[in-house]
Design brief:
Pathway: Protein modification; protein ubiquitination. By secondary structure, the protein is mainly α. It has 28 helices and 5 strands. About 60% of the residues lie in helices and about 5% in strands. The longest helix has about 40 residues. About 25% of the residues are buried.
C-alpha cells in the first residue's frame, strides 16, 4: 500500500502480495494507492462506491478526520495493528461510522473496537471524556450524527455528580468520626479542563451538570475558570486601562457573546450567592466595554440585579463601573448603573422588612420582637451599614470627577434612608471633596448639597472641621454649632438627672429623626428602638466628656479662691472671678430646670448645688 500526498511524499507499507494497486482514493489533498479487496471486505461505503468494477478512482472529500483517520482505517483493513488511544479515538470512531466498518461486513470490525475502547476507557473518566469531546469539535456533523457528542456530555455529567456524592459521603464519615480534617475533593481539576471546549460544547456541558444537580459553588468555579481563560486577561478592572485598549470589532463581538453566555449559565441568584462579587463586577464592566450602544440590554440588567442582591459583599473597586466608551456621557463612571444597583438592594431591604414584621406578628411576642430589632450585630443591620459605608466611599471617589454634575451627586447622596447612616462623617468628607473640586458651583446647589448631611450625626471632630470650613454655606456652620450646643445641653441634663432625662415630658429638646421625613407615627418599632440605643451611646460619651470638663472647672474654682484668701482681692481680680462664676452658672443652668425633682435625681442636684455654694465667696 502506498500513500501519496500533494508534496509527492510516498510512504510504503509492507504489501500483502505482489499485486499492484488497482484503486486510488482521494481524501482531501492526499491520494492513496490501494487494493480494492481489503477495503471492500471491511467498508460498506467503499463497497457501494465500487459497485461498478471498472471504477478505479474514488474521492472521499468529506471523510471525518481527514487523511490521518483514513490512513489508520486503511491499515486496519489490511490487517495491520493500529493503536487506539485518547488522541485518535474520536477520529477513528467517526471514520468507522463514515466508512460503514460495522459487523455487517466483517467480524470484530473497526466500529466494534472503537466502541469497546470508548466504554472501557473514555466514558468512565471525566478528564478523558472532556479531551475526546474537544476532539469532536472538528468532526461535526459526523460526531453528532453518531451521537458521540451527546454520550460524552452525559458521561461527564453523571461522573461529576458521582464524584460529588462520593465527596459528600466522605465528609459525613469525617463528621461522624469526630475528625476535623476534611477529605480533599477532586472537583476543581476537571472543571478547569473544561476551558479547552468551544463555547457551544461548554454551554451544553454546564447545562447538563446543572440538570444533574451539581453544586452551585462548583458551577461558579467552572464558569470563572472558563471566562478567565477564554477572555485571555481582557477582564481589566481598571477603567482607565480599559478605555485605552483598542479592541477589534470581531474580537469585541466574541467577548460579548462569551459574557452573555456565561451570564445565562450563572446559578440561581439569592441574597447569599456562590458567585463572587468581583466576578459579577468584572462581567458587568466587560459588557459595558464591548457593547456597541450605551443602552442596557437584558444581560446588563441581570448583572446589575445580581450585584444589587449581594451589594453588602462589594468593595469600592467593584462599584467603580466605567462608562460606555461609545456613550455621550463625559463622566468617568456610570452613575446611572450604580443608582439602579443600590436601588435594588434598598428595595430588597424594604421587602425583607415587611416579611420580617409579618413573621414576628404571627409567631413572636413583643419582647422577642424588640430583642431582634435591637440586635446591632444582626445580618440585616450589618448589611445596611456596610452598604452605607460603601456609598460614602463611592461618593468620595466620584467627587473628584470634574465633570460630575451636582444633581447626580445629590441623587446618590439622598438614595440611602436616614437610618442607614449612624455617623455622617463619610458623607461630609465626600461633600467637602466635591466642593473643593467644584469651587464654581452655584450657591443654591451648594446649599442643596449640604442639606444631604445630617448635622446631628457628625462626630465632634467633624463638627469642629465643619464650623471652620469656608467652603460650606453659613447656614450649615450655624446648624452644626446649634446641634452641638443642644447635644452638650442634653448631656449635662443627663448627668444631673438621668431619671428625669429619660421620663420627663420635656422631650422637645431632643428632635426626632425619621428616615422618610414623616412624623413619629411612621417610625417602625425597630428603627425607633435602635435610634434610642444609638442616642444613649452618644450621650454616655458626652457625659464622660462633660464630667472631665466639670472637674477642670472645679479645680480652677478652687485655685481662684485660694488666691483670694492669700491676698486682698482687688477690683480686677474680683471681676475675673465673677466672670468665671457666671460661666459655671450658665453651664449648670439650674434656673432652667424644673424644681419638681424626685428621688435620686433631686438628691444629686441638691448635693451639687450645696457643693457649689460651699466654694462661693461669702
Amino acid at each position: 500500500m502506498e500513500y501519496r500526498s500533494t508534496s509527492y511524499m510516498i510512504v510504503k507499507f509492507k504489501p500483502i502480495s505482489d499485486v499492484s494497486s488497482d484503486l486510488t482514493v482521494q481524501v482531501g489533498s492526499s491520494s492513496f494507492c490501494l487494493h480494492k479487496f481489503p477495503l471492500v471486505s471491511r467498508s460498506g461505503k467503499i463497497r457501494k462506491l465500487l459497485a461498478d468494477p471498472k471504477i478505479c478512482n474514488i474521492c472521499l472529500s468529506n471523510a471525518p478526520g481527514g487523511s490521518e483517520a483514513f490512513e489508520l482505517a486503511a491499515k486496519f483493513c489490511y490487517g495491520i495493528n493500529i493503536e487506539i488511544n485518547l488522541l485518535n479515538i474520536a477520529k477513528l470512531r467517526c471514520a468507522s461510522h463514515y466508512l460503514e466498518m460495522t459487523e455487517d461486513f466483517s467480524e470484530d470490525n473497526l466500529a466494534t473496537k472503537t466502541e469497546h475502547f470508548l466504554k472501557e476507557t473514555i466514558f468512565p473518566s471525566i478528564s478523558n471524556s472532556i479531551i475526546v469531546l474537544h476532539h469532536c469539535e472538528t468532526l461535526i456533523p459526523v460526531s453528532e450524527d453518531l451521537n458521540l457528542v451527546n454520550r460524552l456530555i452525559i458521561a461527564i455529567a453523571n461522573n461529576a455528580c458521582k464524584e460529588q456524592l462520593t465527596s459528600g459521603l466522605l465528609k459525613l464519615d469525617y463528621t461522624f468520626s469526630g475528625t476535623n480534617i476534611e477529605p480533599e475533593t477532586p472537583l476543581d481539576w476537571w472543571g478547569k479542563s473544561l476551558a479547552i471546549l468551544n463555547l457551544d460544547f461548554f454551554q451544553t456541558v454546564v447545562s447538563a451538570v446543572k440538570s444533574k444537580g451539581l453544586r452551585q459553588d462548583v458551577i461558579s468555579k467552572i464558569l470563572i475558570s472558563y471566562t478567565n481563560k477564554s477572555l485571555q486577561g481582557l477582564m481589566v478592572r481598571d477603567p482607565k486601562l480599559e478605555k485605552d485598549r483598542v479592541l477589534d470589532v470581531e474580537c469585541k463581538k466574541k467577548q460579548r457573546l462569551i459574557v452573555e453566555t456565561i451570564v445565562r449559565l450563572l446559578p440561581t441568584q439569592g441574597r447569599r450567592s456562590s458567585v463572587p462579587m468581583a466576578f459579577l463586577s468584572s462581567l458587568l464592566k466587560m459588557v459595558i466595554a464591548t457593547s456597541s450602544s450605551p443602552s442596557s440590554g437584558s444581560c446588563r440588567s441581570d448583572l446589575e440585579r445580581r450585584i444589587g442582591l449581594q451589594l453588602d459583599q462589594a468593595i469600592l473597586e467593584d462599584v467603580l463601573i466605567p462608562i460606555n466608551p461609545n456613550g455621550i456621557n463625559s463622566t468617568m463612571y456610570d452613575i446611572d448603573s450604580i443608582l439602579r444597583i443600590f436601588s435594588i438592594f434598598l428595595n430588597l431591604d424594604e421587602d425583607d422588612d415587611e416579611e420580617e414584621q409579618h413573621h414576628h406578628r404571627q409567631f413572636r411576642d413583643e419582647t422577642e420582637m424588640i430583642y431582634d430589632f435591637d440586635s446591632p450585630g444582626s445580618p440585616k443591620q450589618s448589611s445596611i451599614l456596610k452598604v452605607s459605608k460603601l456609598m460614602d466611599n463611592y461618593l468620595a471617589e466620584i467627587a473628584m470627577d470634574p465633570n460630575l454634575t451636582t444633581s447626580k451627586f445629590i441623587a446618590l447622596a439622598e438614595l440611602l434612608p436616614d437610618h442607614a447612616r449612624i455617623i455622617s462623617d463619610g458623607l461630609y468628607r465626600a461633600v467637602d471633596i466635591y466642593l473643593k473640586v467644584h469651587p464654581n458651583i452655584k450657591d443654591s446647589e451648594r446649599y442643596r448639597l449640604c442639606k444631604t448631611i445630617d448635622s446631628q450625626k457628625l462626630s465632634q471632630e467633624a463638627c469642629s472641621h465643619a464650623a471652620q470650613n469656608e467652603r460650606l454655606p453659613v447656614q450649615m456652620a450655624v446648624q452644626v454649632l446649634y446641634f452641638e450646643q443642644i447635644r452638650l445641653r442634653n448631656a449635662m441634663s443627663s448627668s444631673i438627672g438621668p431619671t428625669q432625662f429619660l421620663f420627663s415630658s420635656n422631650c422637645h429638646q431632643f428632635p426626632q429623626r425619621s428616615g422618610s421625613g414623616a412624623g413619629s407615627g411612621a417610625i417602625s418599632p425597630r428603627d425607633n428602638y435602635a435610634s434610642v440605643r444609638r442616642e444613649n451611646r452618644e450621650l454616655k460619651l458626652e457625659v464622660a466628656r462633660m464630667r472631665m470638663r466639670l472637674t477642670d472647672l472645679e479645680k480652677d474654682h478652687i485655685s481662684i479662691k485660694q488666691e483670694l484668701v492669700k491676698s486682698n482681692p482687688g477690683t480686677k481680680l474680683f471681676k475675673s472671678f465673677a466672670k468665671k462664676i457666671s460661666k459655671l452658672n450658665s453651664l449648670f443652668s439650674f434656673s432652667s430646670l424644673k424644681p419638681s425633682f424626685s428621688g435620686k435625681a433631686s438628691s444629686e442636684s441638691r448635693f451639687l448645688f450645696q457643693r457649689k455654694r460651699r466654694h462661693s465667696v461669702s
